[in-house]
């Protein structure tokens, strides 16, 4: 078990490094592209992503995750999953290319047809990475994963920026996506040793299918439950509105997926490895959500307070419509950063069947909220979605928690201290905003408030020695001790 603890610490460290550097680079790239391109450009790509994101679910049909979760994976399993992924990738590319005229007709945007055909190539390219990524994750080799992701993000971002500067418009975003996929494939195949062969035993998939089919079913329905908002806004409000809504949601998802994702990438294989030791799984899970809340709560509540100078300083006046939407999404982000961790428990315990059934219920409620909120435009959709998430928070978390005998009140006790620290910081930043003279630039507002908020939050968590802060400090100290000892 000491080896597992070491892998967890190392994995979190490397994943954190990859996410911090990668997201910093991604944020810089996004800001530059946002300055160079229009909401219309991002809206057009957002319309396509509704369909390509759905197609992504079919890329490996859950077999990649099944390779990670299964304790007895053999060469025949890897080989079968690889060739299945290649076949699915080619099929999805052909279907999307054929569907391009109909997608353009649905949105009444002729420009979408060639864009969809080009983006469809990503699926065939990505098919070559399914097994390699799964094996790296199973082995908890997050150093290699970090290298692949960072290389793809930086190089593809530079390509996108160069094309945007050259006047290629929306095509710069499309080219960036294709380049990211191609670069990841090349780097993975250079640095990973596993190779497939042509001796395929399709019956090997049966060993993985119980886990994968329920996970696939959940992803299939859950996708539309979480993306029906983009479909409805793009169809009934327009690409400019969708561009603003999608950018706001992206800023919400940066801390949710990147902070939670740092730990999620490590916790799924780690919890799968000790899935039979329920007591240890429970304690490890509570420690993980404590650390997540230590970061995501202050980020979300802080962004809520500084949303106006943040948007106007970084993106400009053309994106002012993001401000009210972003403020609503900040409340959503705080709760989602914890709610999404329930998937760790469903998958690591092999109970994707329960995950699928609950997904049908919660997803239906999300879709209804989008339809109701659409009556008031993009802000109405954001408010309705946030309300639905608060309504479903208890069952979304408590159902998977039962698998490890974890009570809701126990989780609240773990999260309460960091919520207190984050609200204290947000209130202090809000008060500072009232004092700063009105004539100062938005950039000055933003820098002062962010710096002040960071200092206040550190003072609170350090002075009161919040449990999450202590856990995070120990993880960091243990990792650096291990590094120095090499």
Report on this model:
It contains 18 helices and no strands. With 486 residues, the chain is mostly helical. The chain has one domain (2-484). Helix 2 (39-56) runs parallel beside helix 10. The longest helix has 37 residues, at 278-314.
Radius of gyration: 22 Å
Number of domains: 1
Class computed from helices, strands and strand pairing: mainly alpha
Overall mean pLDDT score?
A: 83
Counting DSSP E segments of at least 2 residues, the number of strands comes to: 0
Largest sheet: none
* Shape, principal axes of CA atoms: globular
Q: Which spans have pLDDT < 50 for at least 5 consecutive residues? A: none
Q: How widely separated are the two ends?
A: 20 Å
Strand proportion: under 5%
The share of residues in helices is: over 70%
Number of helices: 18
The sequence of SSEs as H and E is: HHHHHHHHHHHHHHHHHH
């Amino acid at each position: 078990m000491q080896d597992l603890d070491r892998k967890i610490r190392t994995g979190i460290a490397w994943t954190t490094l990859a996410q911090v550097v990668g997201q910093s680079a991604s944020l810089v790239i996004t800001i530059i592209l946002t300055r160079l391109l229009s909401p219309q450009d991002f809206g057009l790509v957002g319309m396509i992503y509704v369909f390509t994101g759905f197609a992504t679910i079919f890329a490996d049909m859950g077999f990649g995750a099944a390779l990670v979760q299964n304790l007895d994976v053999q060469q025949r399993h890897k080989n079968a999953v690889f060739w299945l992924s290649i076949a699915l990738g080619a099929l999805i590319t052909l279907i999307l290319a054929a569907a391009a005229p109909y997608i353009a007709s649905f949105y009444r945007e002729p420009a979408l047809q060639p864009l969809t055909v080009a983006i469809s190539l990503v699926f065939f390219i990505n098919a070559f990475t399914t097994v390699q990524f799964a094996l790296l994750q199973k082995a908890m080799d997050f150093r290699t994963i970090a290298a692949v992701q960072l290389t793809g993000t930086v190089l593809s971002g530079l390509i996108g920026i160069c094309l945007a500067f050259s006047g290629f418009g929306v095509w710069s975003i499309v080219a960036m996506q294709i380049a990211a996929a191609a670069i990841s494939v090349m780097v993975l195949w250079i640095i990973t040793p596993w190779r497939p062969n042509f001796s395929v035993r399709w019956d090997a998939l049966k060993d993985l299918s119980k886990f994968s089919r329920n996970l696939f079913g959940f992803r299939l329905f859950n996708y539309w439950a979480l993306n029906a908002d983009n479909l409805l806004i793009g169809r009934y409000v327009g690409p400019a509105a969708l561009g603003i809504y999608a950018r706001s949601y992206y800023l919400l998802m940066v801390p949710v997926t990147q902070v939670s994702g740092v730990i999620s990438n490590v916790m799924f294989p780690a919890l799968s490895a000790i899935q039979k030791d329920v007591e240890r799984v429970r304690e490890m899970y509570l420690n993980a959500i404590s650390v997540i809340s230590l970061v995501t709560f202050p980020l979300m509540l802080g962004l809520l307070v500084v949303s106006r100078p943040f948007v106007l300083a970084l993106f400009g006046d053309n994106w002012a419509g993001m401000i009210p939407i972003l403020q609503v999404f900040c409340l959503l982000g705080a709760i989602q950063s914890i709610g999404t961790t329930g998937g760790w428990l469903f998958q690591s315990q092999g109970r994707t069947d329960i995950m699928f059934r609950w997904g049908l219920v919660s997803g239906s409620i999300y879709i209804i909220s989008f339809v109701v909120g659409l009556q008031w435009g993009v802000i109405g959709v954001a408010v309705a979605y946030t309300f639905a998430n608060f309504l479903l928070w208890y069952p979304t978390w408590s159902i998977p928690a039962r698998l490890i005998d974890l009570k809701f009140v126990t989780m609240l006790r773990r999260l309460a201290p960091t919520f207190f620290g984050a609200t204290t910081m947000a209130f202090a930043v809000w008060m500072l905003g009232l004092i700063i003279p009105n004539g100062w630039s938005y950039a000055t507002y933003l820098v002062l408030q962010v710096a002040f908020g960071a200092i206040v939050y550190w003072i609170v968590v350090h002075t009161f020695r919040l449990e999450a802060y202590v856990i995070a400090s120990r993880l960091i100290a243990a990792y650096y001790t291990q590094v120095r000892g090499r």
